[in-house]
Amino acid sequence: MLIRYVATDQHFTATSTTKLLEHDIGKKVSKWTVRRALKKENFYAIEKKRKPALSKKNIKARLSFVKKYKNWTSDDWMKVIWSDETKITHPMGAPGHG
């Protein structure tokens, strides 16, 4: 029963799974017992990465962008050259220069 809970939804926490299990079986269960049982079945917890909240400046910039481009068609967007602006530096300087 426990494995079924976590296998159907990867976003369950040990605490929420414990509460569901307690509700279904009508008995008190320790979240540590749940964690040990999950670990035994090779289910391991990962910590969800926290995203920083958007600043007021960023919210304003996003809203401005949306308003500016809200009427663009798919064809308009196909003409855009996208760049992730990643700068990659060769450890020995530019290849071929030296």
TrEMBL record:
Residues 1-71 form the Transposase Tc1-like domain. GO terms for biological process: DNA integration; DNA transposition. One of its GO terms (molecular function) is DNA binding. InterPro entries: RNaseH_sf, Transposase_Tc1-like. It comes from the Eukaryota. Gene3D superfamilies: Ribonuclease H-like superfamily/Ribonuclease H. Pfam families: HTH_Tnp_Tc3_2. This is Transposase. It comes from Popillia japonica (Japanese beetle).
